[in-house]
Amino acid sequence: MTGEFSLIAGPCSAESREQVLLTADGLKNAGLTYFRAGIWKPRTRPGAFEGVGETGLPWLQEVKRKYGRKVCIEVPHPRHIDAALSAGIDMLWVGARTTANPFQVQDIAESLRGVELPVAVKNPTQPDLALWTGAVERLQRAGISDLLAVHRGFTVHGQKKYRNAPLWQIPIDFRNAHPDIPLLNDPSHITGNRHKVPDIAQMAVDLGFDGLMIEVHPDPDVAWTDAAQQLTPARFRELISMLEFRSTLNGRAHDDLAALRSEIDMIDASLVDLLSRRMSIARDIGVYKKEHAMTILQIERWKQILDQNVQLGMDNGLSPRFIEEVYKAIHQASISTQRSVLKDGAAE
What we know:
Elements: E1 6-10, H1 17-26, E2 34-36, H2 57-67, E3 71-74, H3 81-86, E4 91-94, H4 96-99, H5 102-111, E5 119-122, H6 129-141, E6 147-151, H7 169-177, E7 183-185, H8 187-191, H9 197-206, E8 211-215, H10 233-242, H11 255-291, H12 299-315, H13 320-344
Parallel strand pairs: 1-2, 1-8, 2-3, 3-4, 4-5, 5-6, 6-7, 7-8
Helix pairs in contact: 1-2, 5-6, 11-13, 12-13
């Protein structure tokens, strides 16, 4: 799938033959790479609908026959793989809850050993790049070479804007580590809200993602799972038609862009130098605090630093949240530096 923009769409859950075929019919001219449907559904809490299971596999076979469309499903457990392969499923994906369990991923990898089939790996629910990378590597070691990664956001306590925070730097870091693995975005699970799906989808396109996985249902309001985040087929087609695809320049940057990037590189070098100097001073402060038996955290001083720099940032057109996040990270690093002084006896 490398070198093309992939579109994967279909219902969160396969609910009935009629629902699956109605969705597939609505998407028949939408340029899909794969039609998706959840057959087995790992749920957070017991008692929730966990999918129709193997009952739904013939429905997907019918989608293949009637619309000539490749189909894909999630395999939460190794025991699901044989049924999926027997049904002629064209691609499998490992879901977020499964990715978070290395033992389960290993079992799936072993069950797929010798199978030539594309496998997509969603990021784990927690913001842990190592878990995501580890899942991919386990599949690679089992001989699975046709791999994709799917960014579906992360569970972050207290975050309210999205169902799952996108934390874009994590998929960017994943891409840097695995440049040959196509990276798709799942705006449905990130947003949890169909009205926010277009913005996240466009952001993924702007960041150079290789495709989208979007949940589509003929009547989302009555969907058995994740009703709020599913689009109608018509709305999906409209979204795709409105996406703006921009050139990545393929490494041959225009002169003006090269000049701007050069300026950013110089600024970044200055930032690193300033941060290094700041940490050096923080270490000296740690020595002083050790000598005078002072606590590391001086809350009034910290409040002063934060308030004055938030205001300074606002005066320069920067958002308060951005400045707070930057200075909290700097403050945490300063605390760690001073803590090492107190522990290591650097004041001696």
